Amino acid sequence: MAKKPETATRIADNKKAAFNYFFEERFEAGLVLEGWEVKSLREGKVQLTDGYVVIRNGELFIIGLQINPLHTASTHVSPDKVRTKKLLMHREQIKRLTGKVEQKGYTLVPINLHWKAGKVKCEIALAKGKAEHDKRDTIKDREGKREVDRAMKDRNR
């Protein structure tokens, strides 16, 4: 029998990022975690909305990713739920990202966390901040789409 390709299972999404930023490019990075953090991720106890990515000494780190410890965590481990976590990417990709981030207006934003081949991956985006009028346009488009969907649903009844 042929083996099915494994699909990526989402753990958490950063919906706020799509509202606040335009995404230029997306990248996938590995995440260095402790054992209790992996167990908490399996339970879905994570918050990604306040997270952001910084580059220090040629390495990527995610700050503000909040992983809440389980109540059944081990007694010999003292969990820190807002610990700075290291992201794993190829050196050439990090150098390219460093050059882009140093340009005016670009930042690195975590978009989601997902499982891939039994490992936790973080999708990050090279992003540019939206102006206030762009955010208003986003809201207007979203509400317009909602109105159309509602009208189509009522029509099909």
UniProtKB/TrEMBL annotation:
GO terms for biological process: trans-translation; trans-translation-dependent protein tagging. GO terms for cellular component: cytosol. It holds the Pfam family SmpB. Keywords: Cytoplasm, RNA-binding. GO terms for molecular function: RNA binding. The keyword Oxidoreductase does not apply. It is found in: Cytoplasm. Gene3D superfamilies: 2.40.280.10. Residues 131-157 are annotated as: Disordered. The keyword Ribosomal protein does not apply. Required for rescue of stalled ribosomes mediated by trans-translation. Binds to transfer-messenger RNA (tmRNA), required for stable association of tmRNA with ribosomes. tmRNA and SmpB together mimic tRNA shape, replacing the anticodon stem-loop with SmpB. tmRNA is encoded by the ssrA gene; the 2 termini fold to resemble tRNA(Ala) and it encodes a 'tag peptide', a short internal open reading frame. During trans-translation Ala-aminoacylated tmRNA acts like a tRNA, entering the A-site of stalled ribosomes, displacing the stalled mRNA. HAMAP family: SmpB. PANTHER family: SSRA-BINDING PROTEIN (PTHR30308:SF2), TMRNA-BINDING COMPONENT OF TRANS-TRANSLATION TAGGING COMPLEX (PTHR30308). Belongs to the SmpB family. This is SsrA-binding protein. It comes from Rhodoferax saidenbachensis.
